[in-house]
Amino acid sequence: MSNEENVELTDGFHLLIDVLKDNGIDTMYGVVGIPITNLARLWQEDGQKFYSFRAEQHAGYAASIAGYIQGKPGVALTVSAPGFLNGVTALAHATTNCFPMLLLSGSSERDIVDLQQGDYEEMDQFQIAKPHCKASYRINSIRDIPIGIARAMRTALTGRPGGVYVDLPARLFGQTMPLAEANALRFTPAPIGGAAAPEADVARAAEVIKAAKKPVAVIGKGCAYARAEAEVKAFIEETGIPFLPMGMGKGTIPDNHPLSAAANRARALAGCDVCILIAARLNWLMQHGKGKTWGNELKKYVQFDVLAQEMDSNQPIAAPVVGDVKVTLPQVTAAVKGYKAPAEWCKEIFDKVAANKEKLKAKLTTYNGGEMNYQNSLNVVKEYIAANPNVNLVNEGANALDNTRMVVDVLQPRRRLDTGTWGVMGIGMGYCVAAATVTSDPVIAVEGDSAFGFSGMEIETITRYQLPVTIIVMNNGGIYKGNEADTGGQISCTRLGRVRYDLMMEALGGKGYLANNPTELKAALEEAVASKKPCLINAMIDPDAGVESGRIKSLNVVSNIGKKK
Ligand code: OXT
Ligand code: ADP
Ligand code: MG
Fold first, then answer.
1. 3-state class of 268 per DSSP?
2. Confidence of residue 467 (pLDDT cuts 50, 70, 90)
3. Residue 81: is it exposed, middle or buried by C-beta count within 10 angstroms (0-12/13-18/19+)?
4. Distance, CA 398 to ligand 3 centroid (Å)?
5. What is the CATH number of domain 365-540?
6. How far is the CA of 558 from the centre of ligand 1 (A)?
7. Residue 473: helix, strand or coil by DSSP?
8. Does domain 199-350 have CATH number 3.40.50.1220?
C-alpha cells in the first residue's frame, strides 16, 4: 500500500503481525469475528499458525499451556465483549498458575464506549481484564504497537510469569503510517537472564538444610516451567533428600526415581523437620502448611521462588531463596555439598513407600469382570506411558484426576498437564491442541466424563487439524459418582447421561472406541496412539467406583442441619 506521494505504507494489521514475529510469536489460538477476522487471515497468509477453536475459553487454555510448555507467552486472540469475556477465564487461569500468556482482543471504539453510546459489543474491556491478570494494556496508536507488544511480552514473562491483556480497539487496525518509519520503530526485546540469590541467603538456606534430621523436598510446577530438571535432580541426588512432586511437578525427576516419596506423602509431610519448597506454593494444595497433614512436629521451611512476596504467605519461611530456581538451586546445591539426608529417616520413608506400592499394585492388577474401576483401568495408561514416556498426559476430573495422578508415573518434565492451581474443569481439549502442536508428540487425555463435557465440542478442532490426540473418557455417568439416587423428584445433581462419547467422536470426524474392560482398553489405547490420529475411547467405569470430591473431600461443605420433612 502507498499514499499519493508514493510513500509505502503499512497499517495496524501488518505492523502488529510483524511485531508479534519480532517477539518470537508464530502461533495464535482463537475464534475470529469482528474486528479481528482479517488479522487472523493476514497472519495465516504470512505463513504463521492460527488454530481456530469453537469457543474462546478453550483457545485461551491452549495459549496458557503453550506458555507453560514453551517458556514463552502463548497467544490467544478473541473478538470484543462476549469473546473477550470467554477468554478472560483462561487469562485468569494463566495468571493464577503462573503461566505466561497474552490475550489479544479486538474492542469497540473508545469514544463511543466512554460515552456509553451503545457501540457494537460495547465494553470497557481494559478495566475488566485488570483484576484478572498481571497487567492490562491498550494500544491506541499504530506507532505504539512495537513498544506495546514488547511491554506485554516482558510483563508476561519476567518476574512471576502470568497473563497479560492487550486491548486492540478496532480503529487501530486501519491506521496507517509510512512503512520505513514503522520498521524503524521495530525491535527484538533483549533477553534477560535468570536472577541469582544473594550469597548470604544461599548460606542461610544451606545452614537450615545441613541441620535437617528429617528433610523433605516438594517439587512444584515452577521447576518444570523453569526447565530446571537437571538442577533439581542434582540437588536431590547430591543430598539424598526424599522428594514429593506436585501434580504438574511430576516428571521433573522421573516418578520411578528411588528418592521419590510420593507413595508415602502423608508421613513425609507430617514427619519432616525441614521442608524445602522448590518453586511450589504453600497454598491449599499444601493445606497452607497447617493441620493434620503437617503433623505436630515444628517445621522449618526453605523456599525457592522467583517472587519475594510469596515468602511468609502462609507460614514463616526460615530461609527464603529468591531468584530463578534454575540459577538459585545450583547455588544451594554447591553450598550443602557433603550433606546427606539421615539414613534412619530415609529408611522410615522408603520402607513404607515400598509397602504402599505393593498394596497399590495388587489393586491395579485386579479385575474380576463387570465394569472397570479407576485402578484397573488406569493401570493400562500407566503401563502404556512406562513404555512410551514421551507422551503428553492431559488430565482433569475428580476421581479421574486424583487416581491418574496417583497411578500413572510421569517420566519426563512438562508432560503432565492438569487442572492446576484452581482445580478447573474445562482445560482438557484446549490443552490437547496446544500440547500436540507445540511438542509434536502424542497426547493422551484422561478425562472425567463431566470434565470432558466442558470442552467436548473442541474434538472437532482436534479432528479438523488431525492432531495425534487420544482421549479416554472415564465414563462413570456422573460428577464423582453416577449412581446417586434421584432426589426431590428430580435426577440427582451429580448424575450425567451415560452416553456414547465414542460415537460423538465418530460423528465429528475421528475414531471412536468403546472399552468395557482393561483388555479392550489396552487394545484401543495402543491402536489409537499408534494411529497418530484423533481418537476417543469411551471407558466404562463402575458408577459406584468414585468418591465425592475425589481426594479433596475435606474441602466439601456439608450441612449439619437435618433434612426438612
Ligand atoms: O500418603 P497417603 O496415605 O496420603 O496416600 C497418598 C500417597 O502416599 C499415595 N500414593 C501412592 N501409593 C502407592 N503407589 C504410588 N505410586 C503412590 N503415589 C501416591 O496415594 C495417596 C494420594 O497421593 P497424592 O495424590 O500425592 O496425595 P494427596 O493427599 O491426594 O495430595 C493432596 C493434593 C491436594 C495435593 C492432591 O489431592 C491434589 O493435587 N488434588 C487436586 C484436586 C483437584 O484439583 N480437584 C479438581 C477439583 S474437584 C471439583 O471442584 C470438581 N468440579 C467442580 C467444578 C470445577 N472444578 N471447575 C469448574 C469450572 N466447574 C465446576 C467438577 C464439576 S470435579 C468436577 C467433575 C468431576 O466429575 P468427573 O466426571 O469429571 O470426574 P469423576 O470424579 O471421575 O467422576
Ligand atoms: P505447584 O502447584 O506445582 O506447587 P505453584 O503454581 O503453586 O506450583 O507454584 C509455582 C511457583 O513457582 C510460583 O510461586 C512461581 O512464582 C514460581 N516460579 C515460576 N517460575 C519460577 C522460576 N523460574 N524460578 C523460581 N520460581 C519460579
Ligand atoms: Mg465422572
1. helix
2. very high
3. buried
4. 8
5. 3.40.50.970
6. 19
7. strand
8. yes
CA pair distance 301, 312, nearest whole angstrom: 10
How many other C-beta atoms lie within 10 A of the C-beta of residue 230?
Answer: 14
Our answer on whether the CB atom of 229 is closer than 6 Å to any ligand 2 atom is no
CA of 475 relative to ligand 3 center, distance in Å: 6
Q: What percent of the chain has pLDDT over 70?
A: 99
CATH of 9-185, one of 3.20.20.70, 3.30.1490.20, 3.40.50.970, 3.40.50.300: 3.40.50.970
Q: What's the mean pLDDT in 111-131?
A: 95
Over residues 241-278, the pLDDT tens digits come to 999 999 999 999 999 999 999 999 999 999 999 999 99
- pLDDT tens for 159-202 read 999 999 999 999 999 999 999 999 999 999 999 999 999 999 99
Dist CA 387 CA 378 (whole Å): 14
Residues spanned by CATH 3.40.50.1220 within the chain? Answer: 199-350
Separation of CA 394 from chain center:
9
Neighbour-count burial of 249, counting CB atoms closer than 10 A to its CB (0-12 exposed, 13-18 middle, 19+ buried)? buried
Neighbours of 216 (CB within 10 A): 26
What is the pTM (predicted TM-score) of this model? Answer: 0.98
